[in-house]
Amino acid sequence: YHAKSHKTGVAVFRKEMNRRASERFQLATHLRRAAELDQLQLHYQPQVQLDDGAVVGAEALLRWHHPQLGAVSPAHFIPVAEETGLIVPIGEWVLRQACRQGAAWQRAGHPPIRIAVNVSALEFEGDGFVETVTACLRDTGFPAQWLELELTERVVMRNVEESVRRMHLLRALGVCISVDDFGTGYSSLSYLPHLPINILKIDRSFVSGLNPTSANLPVVQAILSLATSLRLETIAEGIETEAERRILRTLGCTLGQGYLFAPPRPAEQLYGA
Ligand code: C2E
Ligand code: MG
Ligand code: MG
Ligand code: MG
């Protein structure tokens, strides 16, 4: 009886794995054509000063609307794009589009804001990445100092020496570098002072529900004090409540983004429709 139920379990597991594999394969097939069919779009989420709410930046976030599948979440399709290598051409499209938009906002007379773009491991480690960034800046006329590249700890730590070398090349172009989802990866803290970065983005998991008695409070305090010592800016991610904003502000975090201020929205709506 035991052996039989075990076998059934294995069969169910296999079936589930097959279902997921074919789902991913289908997603990859659709994704391959998404860009050329204009199904991809960038939304922008404002990054604000926690004291007065002034917008100082915007994070570009990829959106995919498939005619049959509907809106597919990045949490779903970014991993597929990474596994298939599609993230490289898609990421280049994102970078170019974000620079074009940033340049357009500046030309329209808006006070300059930083545009943050998420970068995957495969893009960052690819041979042509620095050249791609250079070309996007040059072709769009977007000033490098207003472009921020978001790398996760995981990406940076995969091969720290090579990452640091590349980050220096990027910094030499004039762009800023932030560490996304900070605190969730296995960052070796001893490397942090040697990374040519400008900003730590405090992961949403530490921000969510933050209050004076939270277990997360000492973690957030530690990140903020680390940032101060290393002269890094800090952006708190996923701020949803006034209470979270207030406590982060009190702890010395200067910038934030989250639904409290605004969700990611199409470019036309960043400055109000
Ligand atoms: P991320 O870079 O950490 O982006 C922040 C995510 O938090 C976004 O999810 C954003 O919509 C969401 N968010 C913002 N404020 C709040 C809030 O107050 N509460 C909650 N619950 N969530 C909030 P999104 O847009 O679904 O993106 C998920 C992830 O997909 C991103 O996480 C990033 O890792 C990846 N991603 C998105 N666009 C790109 C892209 O163009 N390139 C690459 N490589 N990755 C991307
Ligand atoms: Mg990000
Ligand atoms: Mg993040
Ligand atoms: Mg996150």
UniProtKB/TrEMBL annotation:
TM stretches of this protein: none
Q: What is the lineage of its organism?
A: Bacteria, Thermotogati, Deinococcota, Deinococci, Deinococcales
Q: Which domain of life is it from?
A: Bacteria
- Where does the EAL domain lie? 24-273
- Give the organism the record lists: Deinococcus petrolearius
Q: What is the recorded name of this protein?
A: EAL domain-containing protein
